[in-house]
């Protein structure tokens, strides 16, 4: 495996969990799949539709999202919103993200306790 392939694999692994946190954060306000893709892309998250839609279905099956079809417009759209459990998971994941970011920063700071 080349260094580029190795790095690419590690970056993909790192990003995989961040998409869950980002999606749960964004979907505190109702949103549909394509708008979520656009919002995530604008924020710098590289995620493809064939990754995002199964993730949304999985989060819904886990009770972290609810969905409802909006048929008021010409094209029906399935809107997702976090449940109270989804909000709690998002908060816990963001707290853990902050803790891990501080821990990595501390490891990278000369003279910090390891």
UniProtKB/TrEMBL annotation:
InterPro entries: Metal_resp_DNA-bind_regulator, Tscrpt_reg_PadR_N, WH-like_DNA-bd_sf, WH_DNA-bd_sf. Residues 26-89 form the Transcription regulator PadR N-terminal domain. One of its GO terms (molecular function) is DNA binding. Keywords: DNA-binding. It holds the Pfam family PadR. Signal peptide: none annotated. PANTHER family: PADR-FAMILY TRANSCRIPTIONAL REGULATOR, TRANSCRIPTIONAL REGULATOR RV3488. This is DNA-binding PadR family transcriptional regulator.
């Amino acid at each position: 495996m080349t260094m580029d392939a190795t790095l690419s694999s590690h970056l993909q692994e790192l990003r995989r969990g961040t998409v869950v946190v980002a999606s749960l954060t964004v979907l505190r306000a109702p949103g549909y799949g394509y708008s979520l893709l656009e919002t995530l892309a604008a924020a710098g998250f590289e995620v493809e539709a064939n990754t995002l839609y199964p993730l949304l279905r999985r989060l819904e099956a886990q009770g972290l999202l609810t969905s409802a079809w909006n048929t008021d417009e010409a094209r029906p759209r399935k809107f997702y919103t976090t449940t109270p459990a989804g909000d709690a998971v998002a908060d816990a994941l963001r707290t853990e993200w902050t803790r891990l970011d501080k821990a990595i920063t501390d490891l990278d700071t000369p003279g910090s306790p390891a």
